[in-house]
Specification:
Layout: H1 7-30, H2 37-44, H3 58-77, H4 86-103, H5 105-112, H6 123-144, H7 149-174, H8 191-206
Amino acid sequence: MQAMSPKRETEPLDVKEACVQAAREAIAENGIEQLSLRDVARRLGVSHQAPYKHYPSRDHLIAEVMRRCFVGFAAQLDRRTPSDDPDEELASMGQLYLAYAQSHPLEYRLMFGTPWPPAAEFPELLAAAKHSFDVLRGVLSRRHGERTAAQRQAVDLDAMFIWSCVHGMATLMQSTCMEHIQLAPKVAPQLGAHLLEMISRAMAAAGPQAERK
């Protein structure tokens, strides 16, 4: 007797995954504001109720799309070149950050330019986002130590300084404005490296927490 097809057993998982992919396509084409589960169902050629079996609301689907963005982003940061010198590791992480923003503009906008669904209702999204930030914290903790409240504070302050600088550059490099402000010749290709060099100088000048008196 021929074995029964596993289609029925695998279909729910396939539909769940397909909803995420269809949502990404819809967002890329029309923006997140226009995303609906009905549109996702139409793209997949399934009944308009099918997505609701896996994502009870639009926010549930958006949260899963965003969670995956953060997972991919953290994986990119984890590709940094290990070093005994945390400043060298920070520079490697900065290069990877800018490269991710440039090669994944949709994901980057979803993570940092899109209102989140209520975070308290989607702890997996919150955990993925926090993990990305903790990658940066981890390297800075080697620089400062993290034994006292003052050292933990210094880690977070430096993390926010670095993040705001690199995020600002990544956002500007995606901006249409960059096409019109008439930078001097050969400046644009140097922007990322120059930014990371200036961050490195600022960090070196400040020194670790133990030296800040």
